[in-house]
Design the sequence.
């Protein structure tokens, strides 16, 4: 499994949005949710950390 984390100084936690077809923002978290096994966020001393987990291919399936 691969875990990716990003942090920023904003204390607000992310929430999925439902962008309309012409909206220019609001798709990032939707993509993360669709492409990852699970995701979440946690508060930090200087803001928040958003993380996502993704399964890696098994060694038997690797080239």
Sequence:
């Amino acid at each position: 499994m691969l875990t990716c984390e990003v942090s920023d100084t904003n204390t607000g936690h992310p929430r999925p949005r439902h962008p309309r077809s012409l909206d220019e923002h609001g798709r990032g978290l939707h993509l993360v949710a669709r492409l990852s096994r699970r995701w979440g966020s946690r508060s930090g001393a200087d803001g928040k950390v958003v993380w996502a987990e993704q399964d890696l291919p098994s060694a038997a399936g690797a080239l």
Summary: The chain has a mean pLDDT of 90.
